[in-house]
Each structure stands twice: as C-alpha cells, then as structure tokens.
Known about the structure:
Helix content: 25-40%
Structural class: alpha/beta
Distance between the termini: 22 Å
Number of domains: 2
Bound molecules: adenosine-5'-diphosphate
Radius of gyration: 24 Å
CATH superfamily of the largest domain: Glycogen Phosphorylase B
Number of strands: 17
Strand content: 15-25%
Largest sheet: 9 strands, mixed
CATH class of the largest domain: Alpha Beta
Number of helices: 18
Shape: elongated
CATH architecture of the largest domain: 3-Layer(aba) Sandwich
Amino acid sequence: MAESLKILFLSAEVAPFAKTGGLGDIGGSLPKALHAMGHDVRVIMPAYKKIEAGYPGVEPMGHTFRVPTGAGEIEAGVFEGRLPGSDVPIYFIAEQYLFNRDTLYGYWDDVYRYAFFSKAALEFVRTLDWRPDLLHAHDWHTAPAITWLATAGQADDFFRGVPSVFTIHNLAHQGKTNWHVFNYLGIVTHSLAEEAYDEVNFMARGIYHATMVNTVSPTYAREITTPEGGAGLDALLRHRQFDLHGILNGLDYDEWNPATDKRLAANFDLDHMRNRIVNRRALQARANLPQVDDVPLVAMITRLDWQKGLDITGDVIHRLMNGFSGPAQFVVLGTGQPEYEGMFAQIASYHRDKMTAFLAYDASLAPLIYAGSDIFLMPSLFEPCGLGQLISMRYGSVPLVRATGGLADTVQDGVTGFAFNYYSSDAFWHALQRAIYFYNVDKDAWRSIQRRGMMADFSWDRSAKGYHQLYEWAIARMRGY
Length: 481
Ligand code: ADP
C-alpha cells in the first residue's frame, strides 16, 4: 500500500453536520474514502448552532485553547465526533459569537468568522501534537489557513514545511474584505494584481499560496483559465496552470443506491429493471399525470438559478409540451429565482395533462423522479462537477446535458447519455429530439445507453485515488523534488 499520510482537512461544510451544496458532500465523503485507503485524516469545521445545541455522538472536549489574533487572544472550545459510519475524527471549533448563529453564511463579518476559524483550526492542531503531512483546504472560507501557512507559518517551528492543497468548488464566491484582516491573522504579505487597493480576496489567495490547486472536474479546471469562466481570476489561474488539476467528485453510493433506497416505490438494479416501472407509475400518480408507459417522461431537478441553463429551457419545454416531438410528459422539481418558478408554473398551467411543476425543495420526492423518469435534463451554463447527472445515470434516467465542466467529463454523447455544446435553445432542442427518437424508435440502443450509465463508476474511491496523487505531488514539491 502507498505511504500513509497525515492529512488535515478543513471545510466550512461537512455533511451531514452542515451542508448547502457540493462542498458539504465532499467534506462528508472524501475523508472516509481516504481513511479507507489507510490515511490518517482529521476533519475540522466550525461548531454551528446545530452542534452547540447538541448533536448525537458529538461531545465537548472539555478544555479550551487560546487563539492569537490582531484583536487579542480569543478563547475557543472544541467538540469532537466521528464522521458517521467511520472512525474518522471530526473536530468542531466553538466560539459562541461567531458560529452559534441561525444560518451558516450571509453575515457582514463572514470573512472574519472564517479567518478566525482557519487560524483557530491550526492552533488547535498544535494542541493535539499531531503534525500533518499536508493541509487540504476548501473554497475561500479556509484559504486563510493556506495563506498563513505560506507566510507566517514558514517561521513557525511546528508548521514550517507543511504543504497545502486548495480545492475550488465555487469560484463565484471569493471571500473579499479589507487589508485589516492580515493584521488580524498576523500575516505580512504583498498585494495581488487581482486585489483592488486595500482589498483582500481569499479565493485568489488560496490559488496563489497553495502548493497545489484543484477543482472538481478536468473540464472545469480548463474553463476557469479563460476570461469567460474565470470570474476575474483567470489570469492568476493561468499563472498556476501547471499546478491546477481537475478531480471529479464522487457520488455517495451508500446514499444513492436504487437497490436499497428506501425512498423509492420499488427497488431495482440491472437484473431487475422491471421494478423500475413501479417507480414510474408512482411518480405519475404523485404528479397527477396519466399512467401511460410508452411516452418519454422527461424530468429536471435543480436549483432554479441562472447557472443551471434555465434561460434556454423555457423554449424547449414549450416545444416539448406542444408535441413538436410527439407525445411526452414533463416533471420539474426546483425552487429558486421567482422568474423561473413563474416560467414553469405558467407552462404547466397550459399542459396540466402532461406536465407538473413541483416548486419546492423535496429530498424525498427527488429519488422517485430519478428512478421514474426516462430523460434527465441538465442544460447548465456552467457546472463545476454536477451531481444530478451522476444520480440520474445510477437510477436509470438517461442524462441530457450541455457539455460543460463536469457534465462534459461524465456524460458521453450516445454512450451514457446525450450532450450538446452551443448554449442555445435550438442546440438543446435538437439534442432532446435526438434522445426522444432513440427512445421511441431504437429501444435496444436506448436500453444499452441506460445500462451503461447505471454501470459507470463515479465512486469516491476513484476520486480519493486522484487526491492521493495530488497530495504526493504537493509533498514532493515542498521537499524540492
Ligand atoms: P448544485 O450543487 O449546483 O445545486 P448539483 O447537481 O451538484 O448542483 O447537486 C444538486 C443536488 O441537489 C442533487 O442531489 C439534486 O437532486 C438536489 N436538488 C436540487 N434541487 C432540489 C429540489 N428542489 N428538491 C430536492 N433535491 C434537489
């Protein structure tokens, strides 16, 4: 087996303790997969309200420690637990005023909250007397730890020489504040070209200071080096392009398994595909649609956000519902921007016998849609990795995607799904017509696309091997190889 590494893993979200998106999924799943490979991983996140209120299996450690900041020493506490279903230790940094709040984000002092968290996490590790071989930090929230390590940390006997990996999950949120935060963190550094006068940008700092950088798919790693995809940081990312890698997120196969998923009307696998029809009927019943079999049932589950390609979707659903490609049914589950909710509500009002819009977040309905539909739409404008297409493949709903970011890396046109390139309703519509043609006319080809999707391997084990390789490179770089 490969050398066992001591990995310090910092994240603002770790499922199931706190999750608003893909960041939480990776925080909950990757450490477990790394642990299974023999690595000593320790995860640290803030003690949000849910933890402070008492979370089963999570206990206070009973002592406090002091965190030096530019605003004086601040006392912090720690809770300790394990990632569910594993032996991976997780620590929660507790500070009443900063983290014990109603929501995770959205406060005026967010950047200071996470600057404090990052510094406190490193100070806490010092008290454990456990020197990590590597720091793995995620998104802007924990980038201050990387910046500290690369600057002040190099004069610190305990942390000197610890390399870092920075993972970008969402380039759109960058964590900007004023220069005073460096006084707070005890850092002396120079300004970056990406930072305006008196501005600090922690996303840029993570990219600049980390030993190695990655994002959550190979195609997205390339796209963010372009002005169109770089959110203002493309020049910096090009500067680091030889250290910038793409590693696909995995899917939690324990949670998303059609053979065991209790939320389904009937479980199924490749050898019991007939049971899938039970889910189709249940979905049609739930959506108040006629329980017909031979009509393509098209579906979408998404945050209703401009990133998700909704600007090219209305026209396509309009054509589909008006029968331009023959009979079809359509179900959408989503919530978000009012204009998109209105768009779906309006089209649905014209086609009550074929279409239902569930304008809500419903985690128990989602699995039934994945398991009961035939075609799953993801026409995203950009998509760092994407989870929906991985779940839909696993549950036998053939994905139809725009070939961008992680969608381009996971769905092969005509092999495991359908893909189009140009961001327009016409390109989207042509791809949908093509999919429906296969569905109606070439059943064998359709079934083999569906089966290949169900057999594809997007497990965390695969991703963890990619991260292990990246850690080895970062360590070698720090040693000067
Ligand atoms: P993002 O993280 O950008 O929202 P992903 O495709 O990576 O997109 O992940 C979306 C996840 O959230 C999927 O698991 C999807 O099933 C789920 N989801 C999105 N909207 C809803 C909803 N309204 N109800 C239930 N689940 C949803």
